[in-house]
Amino acid sequence: MDKKKKYSVQDALEFITAEDSEYEGSQGSYQRTKILLEKEMFETPETTFKGPCAKPPDEIHTPLEYFKNFITDDMLLLLMEQTNLYSVQNSNHLRNVNTTVKELEILIGLYLRMGLCQMPGNRAYWENDTRCPMVADNMSRNRFQTLLGSLHFTDNTDLLHRDAEDKCWKICPWLEMFRNQCLDIQMVPFKGTHSPIRQYVKGKPHPWGLKIWARCSSSGMLHDFVVYQGGTGKKTLLGIGGDVVESCVKLCQLSKTTKFFDRSTFLKMKKSLAQRGRGSVDARVNKEESMVIVKWYDNKSVTLISSYCATEPQDTIRRWSKSGKAFVEVKRPHIVKEYNTFMGGIDLLDACIARYKYHMKSQRWYLYLFWQTTMLGVVNAWLIYRRDCKLLGRVRVGVPEDVQTDEVAHWPVKCEKRGRCKNCKVNATTTLCEKCDARLCFTEERNCFKSYYYQR
User: Fold this and answer.
1) Percent with pLDDT over 70 in the chain
2) What is the reported pLDDT for 247?
3) What does pTM read for this prediction?
4) CB 442 within 8 Å of CB 449
5) How far is CA 67 from CA 14, 63, 72, 88, 310, in A?
6) At what angle do helices 73-89 and 101-116 cross, to 10 degrees?
């Protein structure tokens, strides 16, 4: 075989390439050139990570501190100001809901609690037969409904700073602030008909919803996202998918001579690949760019492109054969193994969110994005907490300090067994905090309960 032979669009392999052209993208000017591919071995480059590694933190923070890395005080302040403003603008009597950041934190906490104890509707948490004390004791039902109806993120009357093409303008400030904290497709379930960005994606668990393109690590941590607002009708060099990828890697370091491939750029391998059966593989290399394109046939053809691995070393995997009605051994290229190892971050993220997400119905479609970002903040905070625990080799034990000092729902109750007081650490008592499960003296002579929670 002539290793120096190059294949072009006229060859039997039918490579589809693009003419030389300049592309002005969001990150600057890129050179798009015709790619010539060779059928030869791919030389694996040095891929040892040489960037800064994650350093262990000084200590493990509280859950609230991790959560506020993503849902920040500035975001809650924006929500408070715009909610109060909207309540005045939307009220015939100019009544201000007069909410506070603390009350909005309680509202978010109630929503998270509802995800742990899910009921068919909001009212059920306050009904006598189905009452949930941790929800009903912290906010009245009427106040809860009033706040839900007033949640807002931008000034409706501010036409000067509104982007006419932005369909998410009602929640854009919140999304941008959350995205800055985070720095495959995710579906936010939504069946309403009043959203300008509602999409249908066949094959998804929730086919109708709001589509979010997300960039995740293999652990499921969200690093960047773009809310899909539908096609613009404008034809671009990369297409919708390529434009989204470019948007999600804006903050990644890219060479100014980066070569882009649109969908038609993937090569059409010989049709005999399918005739050779499962496990057959073909690959083409561009040595100048250290790039390889691999096509592997399993149940159907799979095409992958990489700059650091190719077909070797191959391994074998078990696959079910419909014709033979038995498991068979199928050869798998190394690039497919690597892809399977590091893919699925978005699916893992979706799975974490789905476990405890409470589906609160609303006619205002953008509130679904608000609750989704709240859950994304919870999952990201939990993943970073796990990472810090692993780096430090320990976990947090006991009630966090910010729970002890929140002055919310610390009710003294009696128990049968006596235990040592957590405050004075001398006397035994049968009184404990219903919320923290901490035993504290609560007698005429000693009130450790008060000093422990309210005099710190």
Assistant:
1) 71
2) 65
3) 0.70
4) yes
5) 52, 6, 8, 30, 40
6) 100
